[in-house]
Amino acid sequence: MRAAAVAALLGLFAVLSGPGGARADEASPESAETTTVGDVTGFRADGAVYRLTAGQAEARVSFVSKETFRIELAPDGKFTDPTGDDIVLPQGEPPRTRWKERGDRYELSTGEVTLRAYKKPLRFALHRADGSRVWSETKGLSWTGEKTVQTLARGANEQFYGAGMQNGRGNTTHRDKTVEVAVDYNWDDGGHPNSVPFYLSSAGYGVFRNTYAPNTYAFTDPVTTSAKEQRFDAYYFAGEGADAAKDVIGQYTDLTGKPFLPPVYGMEIGDADCYLHNANRGERRTLDSLKVADGYVENDMPNGWMLVNDGYGCGYEDLEETAQGLKDRKMELGLWTEDGIENLGAQVKAGQRVAKLDVAWVGPGYKFALDACKDAYQGIEDHSDARGFTWAPESWAGAQRCGVQWSGDQSGTWEYIRWQIPTYAGATMSGLAYTTGDVDGIFGGSAKTYTRDLQWKMFLGTTMTMDGWAAMDKQPFRHGEPYTSVNRDYLKLKESLLPYQYSYAHEATKTGVGMVRPLVLEYPDDPKAATEAAKYEFLSGEHFLVAPVYQDTTERKDIYLPEGTWIDYWSGRTHEGPATIDSYSAPLDTLPLFVKAGAAVPMWPGIRSYRDRTADSPLAWDVYPQGNTSFTLYEDDGVTRQHRDGKYATQRADVRAPKRGAGDVSVTINESRGSFTGKQTARPYEFTVHTGSEPRAVKLDRTLPELTSKAAYDRARQGWWYDRDDRGGVVHVKTAPLSTAKKFTVKLLGTSAVGGKKASAAALTAPAGQEAGAGTPGTVQVDVTAGRFDLTDTAVTLQVPEGWQTATANVPGRIPAGATRRVEVALTPAKDAEVRETRLTALARYRTAGEDRTSQQRLAVSVLPPAPEGEAWASDLVWLSETNGYGPAERDRSNGESGADDGNTLTLAGKTYEKGIGTHADSDIAVHLGARCTAFTADVGIDDEINGYGEVAFSVEGDGKVLWTSPKLTGASATVPVHVKLDGVRQVRLKVTDTNGSKTGDHGDWAAAKFHCA
Prior knowledge:
8-stranded parallel beta sheet
């Protein structure tokens, strides 16, 4: 509508330019369309509710608590609330308020804040009780026929966060950016699924627009926030102090609902696929899901639940038998709600415990989605003793109380990993405690991207893997070794960390703050925490800093560590923040992971499923002593709703240690307070205390026996053992079963804080890009850097796979403090060593500052095949790596389906070829040449089987440089001959790239592909 029509509709012609009326915004080029509220013409107070009229427009201020209030504006004086009671929950008694008129303004106050309502024109500003300003409007609220706008002054250093799940952003500041808050079904980088009309500011406040309308927030100067509706309705939250952001999130979730507490199985990985009449996988039955479940069991891999109908048009059968079969395998049944939730009661009675709600976003808008979340959640609870547990890809404010917000359907790529890292930590700033994406997406993907993606997602609260849409299924055991073993290790690491993660899940029900956090939430005064420096990392709880690898590399660049001491989880090396690690060695099995000094992390050791826990199972504490710290473990039965009736327990660990250097360390485990079904009345405890210095004794109620080896420690019922070779030096302690009703203290005498008595450990690094030939003697380079003191008696060894050979390298003389010595360690891989990247661990033993110390470092060595000789067909060689757009690249066949050797005869322009490579864009094949080859020849084009479809380009790269590219080729193009000189090239990559955005028919052939070598 135009302004005249709006004015006529509202009856405002008589007051547009007069005192108290709404008036045209003369400063705006849209002055014919935009109307700004005018002068105050009336004021009324009714308890904690205040009304201010401005001509026909009326504003209403309602205080909810001492720090939370609501401002509404009705341009026509008639208030409406389209959200009703959908989002905002019933609140308690409003606070006591007071008001004063002070000449140019009214002041509406609680004991904590004062909202100033200026009269000419009506304009709001929020101040704290001490008079300091929180925010202020630079102009009054304005509207058009389509939207309402608030305009706020922006502070010189003010930063902004929130707006829900903003793909590719959110964990760093939105300052100078425009953020959309609406449904867009864009599940890739730049999209905003699971939007939330809420933002918070580093100035210590937050704003929630109570609406279903799309919002736009421009965090420019000034800040303009709008909603596409002709009404204004916003709640404001005032936080204070170092934890102001957490306080604001807490107030927002007091209003819209605290995050739910998932069942423990919901925090294990889930698996989703269609099993009944799967168009992509052939004829299957629902009970076939149990065969996949057996794969997890046989591969000793955790899995908490399975969706058995996750595919369009996919139904189910034999539901009760399937549910029971999954329970027998320590898993729960989930269903996708494609047919709605009308049958949910019967499905839950049959055993369903998870509901995935894609159907919700097919319906009419956010209310439908939010209702589906609430109804499915409640349906599970109405028909079982289980907790509601739902997943949704498009939701709104309030959904945090009933489900996991999932980022939708994506393709597994390095870019997918990159932009997901800031997405989920950023969503925490909007009260979304459980946000996640499928491991390696549902399309595309590769063994490497799957493994790298799974690693860091084990530090999210929830995640799943989805099958049936890519060329091969997405279970973590599908790619074989070494990927299966690496995936198993990380799945079991998450399983062991469930007590830690579950404790944070409980904390979120009280505070609204999820476990996955941007650095700025814990370090708001760190100038780098809000910047690009911290964009691709996050905190998992307060104690773990995770910096995922999001490129095809064995190094992670530019890891930022905020203030404090940070310990490399794998090596035990300490880093003092704030600092940036320029290059971190990250072989395929190594997620860059750091632990904050002072951490005491509760763990369940050695289990595949939480159901493996028995009355005799130990509780382990992983301790990084520094100063006086504590952690409170939360426990309940993990699956029922009895915790809501107070059936749960807490147990606090208190660590007392020196802030630096030598001293005693004590770990006190206090009595467990509370009770629940299945609570352990007694249990053994295990401790790993990262001191870096051997204690002279360890005491419980009396001195514990010192054990001399890992084997002796494993056999003993209780005792301690100092392993100097374990992550810089770790004290391992175990106890006999102890009553959970009594506190006890483990004392380590004559040891130190984390890092050792004199923080004198050496640092090991290794040059990137090291290579070794299978069965060929060679060396690995390791750099040893002394710490604050000289090193003597230094010896470097390598931990290698079975069948490999190595020898200790003794370093003669002394390595001066701060100096670096490069050491070459002999290495011969096994003759049958696989051609792939292999992780080794370098171990340096030395003496420094009067102590025997050990340092270690993981490093990657690429095992290479023999270089080709003579005339070598590319399809006959061992490939260093291979990625392909659909299924595997084929040797001497055209691209086929999801399996190997299922393609057809290679045919280009009517000519058939016996030798060559059949690919599907995008494809990338790496071959080791060892600088022995002079040329590469081939014929390239799109295979005749495509009948004229497709459009691609071919390229040849040597040692990172493009040596040749083809023109764009279609299925109708003539065959292009290739002749590329390769003098001195060590590694070549053969690439086929889609060029028109549609990969349909992109079957690119490297026909007669041959290397000409010495």
